[in-house]
Design brief:
Blueprint: H1 5-10, E1 18-21, E2 25-29, E3 37-43, H2 56-76, E4 84-87, E5 103-107
Antiparallel strand pairs: 1-2, 2-3, 3-5, 4-5
Length: 116
C-alpha cells in the first residue's frame, strides 16, 4: 500500500483535529463533514486498503478496537444515546476516496434511509 493522506496524519506530517488516539486507532474530524458529528476512525498499526482486504482471523482484534473506539467517541461527543451511524466504504462506487481502511462515525442529526 502506498502512502496516503491518512498515513501522513498518523505520522503527524499533516495536521488533523484528533478526537481519539491510542496505540491501535486514530480518530479525527472529517474536513468535509456530512453531519454535525463526522469522525474518521482509522487503524494506525496495520495498513489495510479496503474491507475486501480484511482477514477475519488476522484482523479480528483490530476490528474490535475500531468499534470500541467508535463507541467511546460517540459517547464522548454526545451522540451515543440519540444514535449514530458507522460506515465503511469499499471501492469507488461506494465513495471510497482514500485506500486506507477507515470508518465514518456520523451523528448529531436524524439520518435518512436508504443512504446515498
Amino acid at each position: 500500500m502506498g502512502e496516503t493522506i491518512f498515513s501522513k496524519i498518523i505520522h503527524k506530517e499533516i495536521p488533523a483535529q484528533i478526537v481519539f488516539e491510542n496505540d491501535e486507532v486514530l480518530a479525527f474530524n472529517d474536513i468535509n463533514p456530512k453531519a454535525p458529528v463526522h469522525v474518521l476512525i482509522i487503524p494506525k498499526i496495520t495498513e489495510i486498503e479496503t474491507t475486501r482486504d480484511i482477514d477475519p482471523k488476522k484482523h479480528a482484534a483490530l476490528l474490535g478496537a475500531l468499534y470500541e473506539a467508535a463507541n467511546k467517541i460517540a459517547k464522548d461527543l454526545g451522540v451515543s444515546e440519540t444514535g449514530f451511524r458507522l460506515v465503511l466504504n469499499c471501492g469507488p462506487d461506494a465513495g471510497q476516496d482514500v485506500y486506507h481502511l477507515h470508518m465514518h462515525l456520523l451523528g448529531g442529526r436524524k439520518m435518512n434511509w436508504p443512504p446515498g
